[in-house]
Amino acid sequence: MTDPVEAARELIRGAAIEVIPIKGAERAVAAIPPATKVTITCSPKFGLDRTLEHVAKAARAGHRVVPHLAARQVTGRRGLGEIAERLADLGVTDLFVVGGDAKVPEGPFESATQLLSALAGLDHPFTSIGVTCYPEGHRQIPDEALMESLLAKQELADYMVSQLCFDPGALVGWLRSVRAAGVALPLNLGLAAPLNSRKLLELSLRIGVGSSVRFLGKQHGLVNSLVLGRDYEPEKLVAEIARQESFEDLGIAGLHLFSFNQVERTLQWQRGQTSALPA
């Protein structure tokens, strides 16, 4: 049987850290140890070129970098090939594919599944490809469609990363259900890194995880933290998941920390928690 404290410690120790390519991102990435995986997001606001520029800087600095690639921002098969070639030249072998939030696709790809299918037919350098999953659903996509999509994507991907979730019961329940439905992809558990509670609440409501935030407030005193200006720290959630019965059967392979570019605070928490976790 897996020791839950050691399991939680290992997850936190090996966590990937997500960085948004905005002002100050290069400095944030520079603070991350080279052995730590760095993921760099993309968005319609900043575009793929911004993401790829930051990926290049991180890779040349010796970091293990994972670019996010939004299908709806790729102009076509030729453009996809050019991106793959550009990343190959940088030595990038891990890619994270999302559908993207652009209202109008810039090319023929409307979903991550479509882009993954096109990528499978190209000569590319990626030995590990990740996709998104939604333990608490998606505001615009029915649960049935999400399951169908995940089953399709697992034929073309190597792991999945969950959207922000603060409710361990909801997350574990969802994970058990998708495992029963045939989803075998290893899960990198997506968690908010330590962050000021008020800022965390604003960001979480903006991306649609309000029900989970309400759970967090009820269970872990988020309201008091808001009043007192305290930080949210996710170690209790990690420890609770690690204590789940048959934890090893859940297929949780790692952690993905949404740092919101608060990297120094994230690293400080990570160092502290690998030596002291709640029993």
TL;DR?
By secondary structure, the chain is an alpha/beta fold. 44% of the residues lie in helices and 17% in strands. The protein has twelve helices and ten strands.
How would you sum up this structure, described in words?
There is one protein chain. The protein is an alpha/beta fold. It has two domains: 4-194 and 233-267, TIM Barrel (Alpha-Beta Barrel), CATH 3.20.20.220; 196-231, no CATH class. Helix content is 44%, strand content 17%. It is built from twelve helices and ten strands. The protein has helices at residues 4-13, 25-30, 47-60, 77-89, 112-120, 143-153, 168-180, 197-207, 210-220, 222-228, 235-242, 263-273, and strands spanning 16-19, 37-40, 64-70, 94-98, 128-133, 159-162, 187-192, 195-196, 231-232, 252-258. The strands form two sheets. It has an eight-stranded parallel β-barrel, surrounded by four helices. Strand 1, helix 2 and strand 2 (37-40) form a beta-alpha-beta unit. Helix 1 (4-13) packs across helix 11 (235-242). The chain is globular, with a radius of gyration of 18 Å. The model is unreliable at 207-228 (pLDDT under 50).
Topology record:
Layout lengths: L3 H10 L2 E4 L5 H6 L6 E4 L6 H14 L3 E7 L6 H13 L4 E5 L13 H9 L7 E6 L9 H11 L5 E4 L5 H13 L6 E6 L2 E2 H11 L2 H11 L1 H7 L2 E2 L2 H8 L9 E7 L4 H11 L6
Parallel strand pairs: 1-2, 1-10, 2-3, 3-4, 4-5, 5-6, 6-7, 7-10
Antiparallel strand pairs: 8-9
Helix pairs in contact: 1-11
